[in-house]
Fold this protein.
Amino acid sequence: MRKPRLNRDGALELAVRYSYINLNDQDEDNNGEQTDYTLGVNWYINDEIKLMLNYIVAEPLGTKLYNGRLHVLQTRILFSF
């Protein structure tokens, strides 16, 4: 994968993702489905450091463990050497 071109302040990358999973399985007891929506921002500070931030909204439906909406904030730092 190609790295973005960096300027004096680095580079920003925006991401959007949609995912769906059907949890109905004959071998499992936790049936239902789940839909996830993700918004992400990546900041390439320089060629060696990248900060990543994701906001995820997960909507499990019809499961025995949880019904409703989950909000997840996820952050990561990548060091490349």
Observations:
- The first strand starts at residue 11 and ends at 22.
- Residues 11-79 form one domain.
- The chain is about 0% helix and 60% strand.
- Strands lie at 11-22, 33-44, 49-61, 70-79.
